[in-house]
Specification:
Strand content: 15-25%
CATH class: Alpha Beta
CATH topology: Undecaprenyl pyrophosphate synthetase
Distance between the termini: 22 Å
Largest sheet: 6 strands, parallel
Helix content: 40-55%
Order of helices and strands: EHHEHEHEHHEEHH
CATH superfamily: Decaprenyl diphosphate synthase-like
Number of strands: 6
Strand order of the largest sheet: 3-4-2-1-5-6
Number of helices: 8
Shape: globular
Radius of gyration: 18 Å
């Protein structure tokens, strides 16, 4: 199967391995995050040419606050600077940018930058780009429950699904994790129910268009049954 701009795939990525990439090169960990930012820029640029209409990335988890303070501070500064530098180009390219995660612990500067980026790109009809920042899947599920309770709604599977912060983006078709680890690490646990999983040994700064194409080629060989039998899928029933 070849992937074209007429297709509509939702790809989610756990961008793992920035720190290890830097350590292997005797560089500060932040140097790895900077290279990881460049890798993300490459992938965002080519998504529309690969039939990907929605991209969701795990940029900073709620557990990452436990990392060394200088690394966390550097990541926050990188986010603030990246918003100022990259959002105008993303807007020009028609990207619809959203940030999913808990914002109360972020600085006023970062919160304002997130809001301004979302407002600027809200009407864009190109790539839907979700950045999960200060995010955890357990937080997301709990937040969905809080929303239902605040509205006085009964908790059901359908209602909770609609209340999750990642909505209205649909569930991902493919979840990619780089860095050679084989776990989801509290990422999109609800939405991953029927996603295909692909694990790459490449560290995230090494992940490029060729690596993305390899993941998509592997995905194209999968049979997605959603609980049905292979025979039912082939018959379209």
């Amino acid at each position: 199967m070849s992937f074209t701009a007429s297709m509509s795939l939702h790809v989610a990525i756990v961008m793992d391995g920035n720190g290890r990439w830097a350590t292997q090169r005797f560089l500060p960990r932040l140097a790895g995050h900077k290279q990881g930012f460049e890798a993300l820029r490459r992938i965002v640029r080519v998504c529309p040419t690969r039939g990907i209409d929605t991209l969701t990335v795990f940029a900073f988890s709620s557990e990452n606050w436990g990392r060394p303070a200088d690394e966390v501070d550097g990541l926050m500064e990188m986010l603030a600077n990246g918003l100022a530098k990259e959002v105008p180009q993303l807007h020009q390219d028609g990207v619809h940018l959203r940030f999913v995660g808990e914002r109360n612990h972020l600085s006023a500067k970062v919160q304002k930058g997130l809001q301004q980026a979302e407002e600027l790109t809200a009407a864009n009809q190109g790539l839907h780009f979700n950045v999960c920042f200060n995010y955890g899947a357990r937080w997301e599920i709990a937040e969905g429950v809080r929303r239902l309770q605040a509205n006085g709604e009964a908790i059901s599977e359908t209602a909770l699904d609609a209340a999750l912060p990642l909505r209205p983006s649909r569930d991902p078709d493919l979840i990619i994790r780089t860095g050679g680890e084989y776990r989801l690490s509290n990422f999109l646990l609800w939405q991953a129910a029927y996603a295909e999983l692909y694990f790459s040994s490449l560290l995230w700064p090494e992940f490029d268009e060729k690596a993305l194409d390899a993941a998509l080629h592997d995905f194209a060989q999968r049979e997605r049954r959603y609980g049905k039998t292979s025979e039912q899928v082939r018959k379209g029933s």
